[in-house]
Amino acid sequence: MARVLEIRVGPPGDALDRFEAAWNRVAEGRKVSPLRVLTLQDLPSFTRTLTPARWVILERLKSAGPCSIYELAKRLDAWRERQSEQVPETPVDSKP
């Protein structure tokens, strides 16, 4: 079965509500299904967090398929090195 990460925009309280619901299920002896959710507070934080470069990484990871943590680190390092070769480094404090 494929793992899915659901990305949402919503208030932080939503995560607490999901936690409380899971807690109550366990307390009642019911089964708790894994839930993979990334909730970002608002659209500006969404666009700051999931930049176009990060979307590219996510797409590449998705197309590459499942792998170990070690293999993931190797893939990300290789992609980072290729990107740094293509993009000239820009000073952080570039003042005219």
Give a brief rundown of this model:
With about 100 residues, the protein is mainly alpha-helical. The protein has helices spanning about 15-25, 45-50, 50-65, 70-85, and strands spanning about 5-10, 35-40. It has 2 domains: about 1-50, no CATH class; about 50-85.
What are the main properties of this structure?
single chain, 96 residues, 2 domains, two-stranded parallel sheet, 4 helices, 2 strands
Kindly describe this structure:
The chain has 96 residues and is mostly helical. The protein folds into 2 domains: 1-50, no CATH class; 51-87. The protein contains 4 helices and 2 strands. The chain has a two-stranded parallel sheet. α1 (13-27) links the parallel β1 (6-9) and β2 (37-40).
Set down the secondary structure blueprint.
Elements lengths: L5 E4 L3 H15 L9 E4 L2 H7 L2 H13 L4 H18 L10
Order of helices and strands: EHEHHH
Number of strands: 2
Using only CA atoms, what is the Rg? 19 Å
**Helix proportion range:** 55-70%
- SS content category: mainly alpha
Largest sheet: 2 strands, parallel
Q: Trace the largest sheet across and list its strands.
A: 1-2
Distance between the termini: 54 Å
Strand content of the residues, in percent?
5-15%
Domains (count): 2
Average pLDDT rating = 80
Identify low-pLDDT runs.
Answer: 90-96
Shape: flat
Number of helices: 4
